[in-house]
Amino acid sequence: METLLAKPSQDIVDRACEYINNKQVVALPTETVYGLFADATSSCACEEIFKAKERPMDNPLIVHICNYNMLTEVAAEIPEDALKLADVFWPGPLTIILKKSDIIPDAISAGLDTVGIRMPQNPVILEIISKTGLPLAGPSANRSGRPSPTNAQYVYDDLKGRIPLIIDGGSCKVGVESTVLSLAGDTPVIFRPGYVTQKQISEVLGKQVLLSKGITEELSAEDKVLSPGLKHRHYAPKCEVTIINASFEKYREKVLQDGAVAFCFEEYADKIDGQCVVYGRKGDSASQAANLFTALRKLDEIGANKAYAAMPDMDDVGLAVYNRLLRSAEFRVVNL
Ligand code: TXA
Ligand code: MG
After folding, report:
1. How far is the CA of 169 from the centre of ligand 1 (A)?
2. Secondary structure of 246-315 as H, E, C letters
3. In 10-151, where does DSSP find H-type helix?
4. Can you tell me the mean pLDDT for 199-228?
5. Across 179-193, 233-247, 277-291, least confident range
6. Per-residue pLDDT for 128 more than 90?
7. Whose CA is nearest to atom 19 of ligand 1?
8. 261-269, Cβ contacts within 8 angstroms, sequence gap of 24 or more
9. How confident is the model at residue 201 (pLDDT cuts 50, 70, 90)?
C-alpha cells in the first residue's frame, strides 16, 4: 500500500473522511501525540488499527469525540464529575474512562465494560470527526512497543506501507499522551499520568484522586491489571536506557566512566564532554514532556547502544515524564 504523507488541505481532509467512511485507518495529529484513527463504531475498522500497529488485542483503544452529543452516544452513563472535568479540560489531553454504551464494539474495549473518551485539541481531527459524524478510535501512531510519534515523519518511519494517509500537522505541543482517568469506579483513579495532573483533577472535583499502582513501579504477575497499557512493553528505543538518580556530579562521572550516551537536560549537556542527547530543560517538566519521545528516537538515529538518563522531577507533569522514561528504560533505575 502507498502511504501518502500530506499537509492538511481541504482535499486531504476530505480524503481522510473518505478513508474513515470506508473503514480504513488514517494517522492524524493531536496536541499530545499522533494517533492512528478509524471508525469507533465498527469492529472491522478497529481491527485494522490493531493490525497496522501490531498491537496486542487485549489493550483497549481511546475513543475521540468532537462534542457532548457524541459523549452521550459512546458512554452508557455520564457522572457529574465527568462533566465537571470535560468543562475545564476538553478539548485537551484528558481521557475519561466511563461505562461504555452498546455502540462501542468489544474490539475497542478489549472485553471491558468501559471506554476511554477524549475530545482532542486539534482543528484537523475535530473537523474530521465532525464531518464524518463518527467517534474515532485511536491509539498512538507508533509500531507497538516503540516511542509514541510526536511528528508525522516518525509515523511514516513506523507505518509506511501499512496505512493510506498521514496528515502532517507539525510537532505535537504536549508530547506525551493524555492523562487516563477512570471514573468508572467509586473513587477517581489515574491509570496513566499526563499533562493534566492529579492535583488539577482533584481541585476541579473537590475530592481525592488516586494514582494506579503500576505508574511508578513494575507490576508483578499477581497484580490485578486495571489498565492493560500498564503491563505491556512500551516506548522502548533499540538503545538500552538506564535512569540514573544522582546529583549532577555523580551522574556526569558515571556517564564518562561507562562511556554511555548522556540522555539529559540542556544544562547538563553543556558541561559533559561526551555524546549527549537532550530531552528538555532541567526543572521544566513541560519541556521534558515535549521532547522526550523525539529524544528517545534520536538515540537510535545516532546508533547509541547504551544511554544513561538523568532523573526527571516526579511531581505534576514530571510524573508523566518519569512514567514514560521508566518504561523506555524497562524499569532499570540506578540510585547513586
Ligand atoms: O493522547 C492520547 O491519549 C493518544 C492520542 C492519539 O489521543 N492516544 C493514546 O492511545 O495514547 P494509546 O492506545 O496509545 O493508549 C491508551 C491507554 C492504554 O494504556 C490503554 O490501556 C488505556 O489507555 N485504556 C484505554 N481504554 C481503557 C479502558 N477502558 N480501561 C482501562 N484503560 C484503558
Ligand atoms: Mg500508545
Report:
1. 21
2. CCHHHHHHHHHHHCCEEEECHHHHCCCCCCEEECCCCCCHHHHHHHHHHHHHHHHHCCCCEEEEECCCCC
3. 10-21, 43-53, 68-74, 80-89, 106-109, 123-132
4. 87
5. 233-247
6. yes
7. 229
8. 261/299, 261/302, 261/304, 261/306, 261/307, 261/308, 262/307, 262/308, 262/310, 263/295, 263/299, 263/307, 263/308, 263/309, 263/310, 264/309, 264/310, 265/310, 268/310
9. very high
Residue nearest to atom 18 of ligand 1 (CA): 229
pLDDT of residue 229: 66
Report the C-alpha gap between 51 and 57 in whole angstroms.
9
Cell numbers linked to 319: 510524573
Instruction: Give the model's pLDDT for residue 214.
Output: 86
Q: How many CA atoms lie within 13 A of 232 on its CB side?
A: 18
Nearest residue by C-alpha to atom 15 in ligand 1: 139
Q: What is the pLDDT of residue 277?
A: 98
Task: Tell me the mean pLDDT in the region 246-252.
Answer: 97
